[in-house]
Methyltransferase domain-containing protein
Amino acid sequence: MVKKDEVKKAVQEQFGRNAEQYVQSQTHAKGDDLDLLVPWMQPQKNWTVLDIATGGGHVARKLAPHVGLVVATDLTRPMLEAASRANREQDVDGILYVQADAEALPFLDEAFDAVTCRIAAHHFPDPDAFVREVSRVLRPGGSFLLIDNVAPDDPDLAAFMNKIEKLRDPSHVRCLSPGEWRSLMEKHGLAGRMQRHRMKKFDFPQWAKRTSESLQQEEAVENELLQATEQQKAYLEMAVENGRVRTHQIEEWMVLYQKTRGDH
């Protein structure tokens, strides 16, 4: 059983310690998923948008010029401060920063025209509560855009992938499969409109170092990968040179849902 308070404390410690790294991280700052936000969502100038777990503020920065207001939330105050500094440096305004828990949002029902959450939901201990809250704060007809790393449908591969992620980052909870996300969306009155799968390739040493607290932790992640089965190595498309992991890949799902009913 996941202890929510412990998980959330770990998340705050992890992202508080590495806030500037997440702002500068090319994995988070770049990506054609960011370029798809506006074409997919078709934002309007009168919209109020909620960006949950804003991290480095990259989604908020992308959407702010196209809408009336972006409310950027994060569980971790230093992360919000880092995002705010980065957005000010790029002369982006129209963003309000609020410290908030994704599973207990401090907003009224039907307060937003759209909600976004990018590369963060795998840190949430209760995905059902997260999706319920998204649906609650969305106006009927409003859009929810979710981007996150996802696990494969194969339970053994999924367990292995999540084990690697947890070793690398103790604040990781679990990557869900697209099927699990679809069930939660349907349960809370959200209907799928668009989706895209992609495999993201990472430079392993850089990836491991970003959340590392010690060289021993990085070595533990690498050793786990080197001892993987052939099926696991194939799924991750691991490249090994001279006994060291050089690159691997992670599956990402980008999906646009729409709120279809007004009850919660």
